[in-house]
Amino acid sequence: QVQLVESGGGLVQAGGSLRLSCAASGRTFSNYAMAWFRQAPGKERECVARISRSGSSTLYADSVMGRFTISRDNAKNTVYLQMNSLKPEDTAVYYCAADSRITYFEYQWRVAASYDYWGQGTQVTVSS
C-alpha cells in the first residue's frame, strides 16, 4: 500500500509560479513511475506529466510543454511539479498518481486506470 500526500497548491496570478509536492509512504517509492493529473470543472481528467522510476524519462501534455517540469527525489520519496508561466486555464485540482506496471514507459501513460494509487488532490487557482 502506498500513501500519497500532496502540498503546494494555492491561488496565484497569471504569469506566476507554483511548485507542487507529493510525498509517498508505505512502499518503496522508486518502484513506481509517477504522474500528475489535473481536473478542471466541467472537463475530463488530464495527465499533464509523467516521470519514470529512475527519473531519467519524462512525458508532458502539449498544454503544459515548456512551462511545467516534473521531477523526483527518490531519497526523499517525493515527486514535484514545478509550474511556471501559469495561465487561468491551468486552474484545476491537481492529483499525484503512482503506476506499478512494468511496461514501456509511454504505454497508456495518459490513462487514469494505468495508475494504482492516488493522492487527495490539491487546488490550483490562477486568477485573470
Task: Tell me the layout of helices and strands.
Layout (H helix, E strand, L loop, with lengths): L2 E5 L2 E4 L4 E8 L7 E7 L6 E6 L6 E3 L7 E6 L4 E6 L8 E8 L17 E2 L3 E6 L1
Parallel strand pairs: 2-11
Antiparallel strand pairs: 1-3, 3-8, 4-5, 4-9, 5-6, 7-8, 9-10, 9-11
Number of helical segments? 0
Low-confidence stretches: none
Quick one: how many beta strands?
Answer: 11
Order of helices and strands: EEEEEEEEEEE
Mean pLDDT: 95
C-alpha geometry = globular
Q: Mind summarizing the main beta sheet?
A: 7 strands, mixed
**Which radius of gyration do the C-alpha atoms yield?**
14 Å
Q: What is the helical fraction, as a range of percent?
A: under 10%
Spatial gap, N to C terminus: 40 Å
Strand proportion: over 45%
SSE class = mainly beta
What tags apply to this protein structure?
single chain; 128 residues; seven-stranded mixed sheet; four-stranded antiparallel sheet; 0% helix; globular
